[in-house]
């Protein structure tokens, strides 16, 4: 909600009604006035929701096709990814800024599309993310070059056409040098800088080295400073890094997060890539989230932790004009259902499903949701962090 300026109060002094001046010294008092002093604008508060990987395996396409057909959208290239976000949709929409991570590039309209190990998802994933409520998406990942530089160009274009700000991978060199800043309804400007550890062995052309940001903390800090210079009030840094399917951060993750958090220009550091939830901690007063896990994916069934995730919600309060501090850190456990024909995938708000305030999709057992809650929250707290609430 946009911030409103406080009303200006003006004080004035004058003679008391009915009073008579002394007979011996008749005088006329000059009116006394005070200059109006505008009161300070109220401090602003901003909520930011951060989610893990959107990893579009082919069964997610089948699910989206079923949802499209259920709405009467006939045809083999009809996909509706919006319903897949399930009971997490209201959480995403409620945030002043919601940030997703698009793990894979999109293919051309009509295909061909490709599954693991080199992805090209249906381009309708962009409209699905927008329908879910996402405002900004990071694009830099080890899969960024799966469909070549043309895939990057398509992905940027499709997400921006859907109204989503993007960063981390770029269609033009000028874009790579332009800070990604989202302005909330209250006028707070939030920037995101993001980088990935590598590109799965693919090589960027020599003339397009700018197309994907690779992790270099000096470069990321320089980008954060550029965002501040461009007017950003808050800067978030995202690292696509870590060892897959583990809950412990690597030495590189720890060192990189420390460098970013201690830079003085970054307000929060978070990560994705491991496909499993990793710990939260603080470096000084700066929050660090090592890994959010997957948000939507369909990895091997036996890798059960990859169906679990955390959506992080941070509330920033304006402690002084233009200076924001985190006043609330909330971990929201999620679970994504397995696809089966006739049973489309749904992302589940685990806490809400367990307390009865959100539906439990058919075929999902309460014990599965309890395990997702317990396992993800144990990972979040595994370094002993305090001050995290559960949403």
From TrEMBL:
Residues 15-41 are annotated as: Disordered. Residues 19-41 have a biased composition (Low complexity). Coiled coil: none annotated. It comes from the Bacteria. SUPFAM superfamilies: Metallo-dependent phosphatases (SSF56300). It holds the Pfam family PGA_cap. Residues 47-299 form the Capsule synthesis protein CapA domain. PANTHER family: PGA BIOSYNTHESIS PROTEIN CAPA, POLYGLUTAMINE SYNTHESIS ACCESSORY PROTEIN RV0574C-RELATED. Belongs to the CapA family. This is Poly-gamma-glutamate synthesis protein (Capsule biosynthesis protein).
């Amino acid at each position: 909600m946009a911030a409103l300026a406080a009303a200006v109060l003006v004080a004035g002094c004058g003679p008391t009604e009915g009073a008579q001046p002394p007979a011996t010294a008749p005088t006329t008092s000059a009116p006394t006035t005070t200059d109006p002093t505008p009161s300070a604008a109220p401090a602003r508060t901003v909520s930011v929701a951060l989610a893990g990987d959107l990893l579009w395996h082919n069964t997610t396409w089948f699910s989206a096709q079923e949802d499209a057909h259920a709405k009467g959208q006939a045809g083999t290239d009809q996909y509706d990814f919006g319903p897949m976000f399930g009971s997490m949709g209201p959480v995403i929409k409620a945030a002043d800024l919601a940030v997703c991570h698009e793990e894979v590039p999109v293919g051309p309209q009509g295909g061909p599309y490709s599954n693991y190990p080199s992805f090209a998802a249906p381009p309708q994933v962009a409209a699905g993310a927008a329908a879910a409520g996402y405002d900004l998406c990071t694009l830099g990942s080890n899969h960024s070059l799966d469909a070549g530089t043309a895939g990057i160009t398509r992905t940027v274009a499709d997400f921006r056409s859907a109204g989503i700000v993007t960063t981390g991978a770029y269609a033009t060199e000028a874009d790579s040098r332009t800070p990604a800043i989202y302005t909330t309804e209250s006028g707070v400007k939030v920037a995101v800088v993001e980088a990935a550890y590598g590109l799965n062995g693919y090589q960027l052309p020599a003339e397009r080295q700018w197309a994907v940001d690779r992790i270099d903390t000096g470069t990321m800090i320089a980008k954060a400073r550029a965002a501040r210079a461009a007017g950003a009030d808050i800067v978030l840094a995202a690292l696509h890094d870590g060892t897959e399917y583990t809950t412990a951060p690597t030495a590189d993750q720890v060192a990189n997060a420390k460098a970013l958090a201690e830079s003085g220009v970054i307000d929060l550091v978070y990560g994705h890539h491991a496909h499993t939830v990793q710990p939260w901690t603080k470096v000084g007063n700066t929050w660090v989230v090592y890994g959010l896990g997957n948000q939507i994916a369909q990895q091997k069934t036996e890798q059960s932790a990859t169906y679990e995730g955390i959506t992080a919600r941070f509330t920033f309060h304006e402690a002084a004009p233009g200076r924001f501090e985190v006043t609330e850190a909330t971990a929201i456990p999620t679970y994504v259902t397995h696809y089966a024909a006739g049973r489309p995938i749904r992302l589940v708000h685990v806490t809400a499903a367990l307390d009865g305030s959100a539906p439990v999709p058919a075929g999902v057992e309460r014990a599965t949701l309890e395990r997702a809650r317990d396992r993800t929250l144990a990972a979040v707290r595994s370094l002993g962090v305090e001050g995290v609430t559960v949403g």
